[in-house]
Write a structure and sequence with these properties.
With 206 residues, the chain is mainly α. It folds into 2 domains: 54 residues, no CATH class; 100 residues, Orthogonal Bundle (Cytochrome Bc1 Complex, Chain D, domain 2), CATH 1.10.760. It is built from 7 helices and no strands. Helix 4 packs across helix 7 and helix 6 packs across helix 7. The protein is elongated and about 95 Å long.
Length: 206
């Protein structure tokens, strides 16, 4: 009797485990299906049925729609992406316009004034950013003696006579577009952070 009972339990367990297996069109059982089926917003393919994917819904959305619904019913044509209004220009959180000076406008950029005040907090944040983005080439004191300079000659020394009088606008422009061996970092560092780095570089020159 014990043998039969044990055999029945073993066979039942094997069947149960087999039913959880995945293969072919059968992907098995899913414990948390919404973790497997993330639904991203698709700008060109809208699902307007708010009950689409109701069988999968495990979250009580405040608007009552189901898992696959991905339209924005508050925008015209239910689209999630909208063109900006004509004749408008995007600004950042400070209201600054995009930096439009080209790479060859260094002389004019040198006349620009930083929009940030020279507070201790701004300089401290500039130091952190400098150590993150600049230290490896320009060195901790701006002397052009970073680790990268051991392989590439020509990393400028900020304290040299040729550079000691450069402006924050000059530094900001070079960070944005690059110069000589230095590549452009405008896509990696926000305008606000570039100005903070410029502030800190000026303190190194003192």
């Amino acid at each position: 009797m014990r043998f039969l009972t044990g055999s029945f339990v073993a066979i039942s367990a094997a069947v149960l485990m087999t039913s959880c297996g995945a293969g072919g069109d059968n992907q098995g059982l899913e414990y948390a299906p919404n973790m497997y089926h993330s639904v991203a917003y698709e700008p060109y393919s809208q699902i307007v049925d708010e009950d689409a994917g109701r069988w999968l819904t495990s979250i009580d959305y405040p608007d009552g729609y189901a898992e696959f619904f991905n339209s924005n019913k508050y925008n015209p044509f239910r689209m999630n992406m909208r063109e900006t209004p004509a004749n408008t220009v995007s600004r950042n959180k400070h209201g600054w316009l995009p930096y439009r000076l080209g790479k060859d406008s260094l002389a004019f950029a040198s006349t620009l004034k930083s929009p940030l005040d020279s507070t201790a907090a701004v300089v401290a944040e500039g130091k952190i950013l400098y150590e993150m983005y600049c230290d490896h080439c320009h060195g901790p004191k701006g002397a052009g003696d970073g680790k990268v300079s051991e392989k590439y000659n020509g990393v400028p020394n900020y304290k040299s006579d040729a550079l000691k009088n450069i402006t924050e606008g000059h530094i900001f422009h070079v960070i944005t577009h690059g110069k000589n061996l230095m590549w452009a970092h405008g896509s990696q560092i926000s305008p606000e952070d570039r100005w903070k780095i410029a502030k800190y570089v000026k303190t190194l020159q003192k």
